[in-house]
Amino acid sequence: MNIPALTAADIHYLPPAVSWQDAIRLSLLPLLERGAADPEYADAIIQNTLEFGPYYILLPEIALIHGRPEQGARSEGLAVTGFSAPVEFLENRPVRLVFAMTALDSENHLSVMAYLSRLLSDEERVKKLLSAASAEEL
Question: pTM here?
Answer without folding.
Answer: 0.93
